[in-house]
Design goal:
Blueprint (H helix, E strand, L loop, with lengths): L1 H37 L24 H11 L3 E4 H11 L12 E11 L2 E10 L2 E16 L2 E7 L4 E3 L2 E10 L2 E4 L7 H10 L1 H9 L3 E5 L2 E5 L4 E2 L6 E2 L1
Antiparallel strand pairs: 1-10, 2-3, 3-4, 4-5, 4-7, 6-7, 7-8, 9-10, 11-12
Length: 235
Amino acid sequence: MANDEEPKKKSGGCVGKLVSLLVLAMIVGLAAAVYYISLPQDLSDIGGATPSLTKPASPPRDMRAVLTKSIEGDYSVQISETELNQWLARELKPKQGGELAQWVTLKRVCVRLSEDLAEVIIERDIAGYPLTTSMFLQVEQTESATGISTQVHLHGGGFHEMAPIPTRGGRFGQLTVPQGFLIMVMPDFQKIAQLFETEINLGFQQMTRIKIEDNRLTLDPKQLKRIKKVGEQSF
């Protein structure tokens, strides 16, 4: 009987050790995640995100007027990352509400533009310590017989080309999080979107072509001119 019980004890001990290792790995992973969340993003690479020490030669472009004239004149317009963030700094007056208002200050909102990807970043000051949250945006355009439709996806694609799911939703501090985690900060981004509802409609709904590149955004209202040959188009 003793010989039969010994393997069972060894087996039970191995399972216990495995469970302990898994629990330890989870604790270490959670601690690492909290650490990277507490580290704010470095925003020094974003044009116009940091206030300039010198006064600009001209005031920031009025984006509503720029987009309206582009649509009315049927010509494309380019908006640099710096111009976009300078305009946001002028138009958006950050204010933290709620019960945490006395400890939390909403410092600024800025946008980082890279190839086919925009990142909207909110920076807060919590008792003197900076904290950032962000959301990735991608624009997808599809053409049909009725024209071009534009969809704005609230993610930045998969974490790896071999693993398209889950998608990268944004960043809490320096930690990139899946799209589902955005539910915790979505109300903040929705409030910002509501403030610029007119500009968003002009820039993303009334423009035929939208291209996000490094440090700039190109918008074109020109409608596609179809060539008689089936399947061919002219821009």
